[in-house]
Amino acid sequence: MDPGRYHLLLTVDGRPARHGWWDSEATARRKAIDWIGEYGGRPGVKITLVDETTGALLTEWPDGA
């Protein structure tokens, strides 16, 4: 079963801590905003959203991390 086109990844100090996959880009972007609100204030956190079909980086927090 395909996990979904849009992959959201949260890392802490470079180590994967949480993953999510969605077929809808809009849903994945909403989840990214939720994760930034929930985890973004913690030290060492990086959140990325990637289109797994094209390899494009759609969102990165903090910007330019």
Describe the overall structure.
- The protein is α+β, with helices and mostly antiparallel strands.
- The protein has one domain.
- It has one helix at residues 25-39; strands at residues 6-12, 15-22, 45-51, 57-61.
- It has a 4-stranded antiparallel beta sheet with strand order 2-1-3-4, with helices on one face.
- The longest helix is centred in the middle third of the chain and has 15 residues, at 25-39.
- It is globular and about 35 Å long.
- The mean pLDDT is 94.
A few lines on this structure:
The protein is an alpha+beta fold and 65 residues long. The protein is built from 1 helix and 4 strands.
Comma- or semicolon-separated keywords:
23% helix; 1 helix; 65 residues; alpha+beta; globular
List the helices and strands and how they pair.
Elements: E1 6-12, E2 15-22, H1 25-39, E3 45-51, E4 57-61
DSSP summary: helix tally = 1
Shape category: globular
The total domain count is: 1
* Quaternary organisation of the protein chains: single chain
Q: Low-confidence segments, ≥5 residues, pLDDT <50?
A: none
> Which percent range fits the helix content?
10-25%
Give the DSSP E fraction (strand runs of 2 or more residues): 35-45%
How do the strands of the widest beta sheet line up side by side? 2-1-3-4
Mean pLDDT across all amino acids = 94
Give the termini distance in whole angstroms.
32 Å
Question: Main sheet?
Answer: 4 strands, antiparallel
Radius of gyration: 11 Å
The SSE string, one letter per element, is EEHEE
> From the helix content, strand content and strand pairing, which structural class follows?
alpha+beta
Query: How many beta strands in the DSSP annotation?
Result: 4
